[in-house]
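Annex B.
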Amino acid sequence: MNKDAMSKEEEKKVTDRINELYHKKEKEGLTPEEEQERKELHKKFLANFRVAFKQDVENMVIIDKNGKEVTSERAKRAQRKKGLRKD
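UPF0291 protein IMAU30003_00061: predicted structure tokens.
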């Protein structure tokens, strides 16, 4: 797991709190403090999503219909740097 990514437990806590604040906002509105908390949680959630997505893309190996690997050189370099490739 990437050191910048949240654990699954932490991600669930953030998501649950975002949802809780969303429902409260819909029913009765949020205090300025809660609105600020909501914004910070969204930033944290999006940062985590980006880290995880980048990691997924960098770890991807692409094979064409003829069975030939066509993974981009950029992805291959990232994989080599992480020790995921030996070529």
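Helices lie at 8-27, 32-59, 73-81. The mean pLDDT is 92. Further annotation is deferred to the next reporting cycle.
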